[in-house]
Amino acid sequence: MPRASDHSCSYSGSMALAPGLRHLFLCAAAVLLVVHQLPGCARASDPDILTDYVVPRDLLADPSQINGTFFTYTRLVSSNAGDPAKFTVTKATAAEFPALLGQSVSSAALVFGAGTVNPPHIHPRASELLVVVEGALFVGLVDAARNGTLHTATLQAGDMFVFPRGMVHFQSNDGTGVARAFSAFGSASPGTISLPTELFETGIDDTVLEKSFHTDQATVDALKNDLQQPPVPGPAPPQDSAGVALLGGARLAAAMLCVGTAFSLVL
Hints:
five-stranded antiparallel β-sheet, metal-binding, manganese ion binding
């Protein structure tokens, strides 16, 4: 009698599957996995697969295409030369690299221009393991399990930092040169939810934002306008005192909302 923890079951008598039927069942299961992995399907995590890997539907009719090229991805670095004035990221998830379907792994290459940030965000379906390979990064994690405690670290080349799944985190290059890093994810489709974008660029009613921030319409408008402008690395240009006060209030509101969102993930 198999134990409850066993991943397979044995059958006897009339319940036994003939080898041919068993093979047909496994093939059908593999096809169903492909269907469930199609874009547009919402998943909380990667499903367990019954085969070593999943063959995309468009390759099922031509198995000869399953070769070394199928298991190779060459654009993670080559397609991200990096702009010294921006933060840029390229991904190797199941969307870009179909061989990752069902493998519960993916990667990203991040290039940080001087003074740029990867804004507070979460990955709903995966933990992230980040390693710095050039320069230095200041990173932060909002610990939802400890009432929103903020954990920070300054990483040098060769250092690693783990961001648990679903927790708010960010990275920042506070130096004067370019910083580079690679991230590994425990999902072929980790997902990214950028808090500034999701909160201020998705059409949430301004009144809701005002009440959530305990602020006014002018601050909400300033936040939305600020997000629509290209980021400017390094020190900000001189501004009049009124403009500084307004921008400061907007950024303070953004910080408050990020922390509030972190708490909401626990409650």
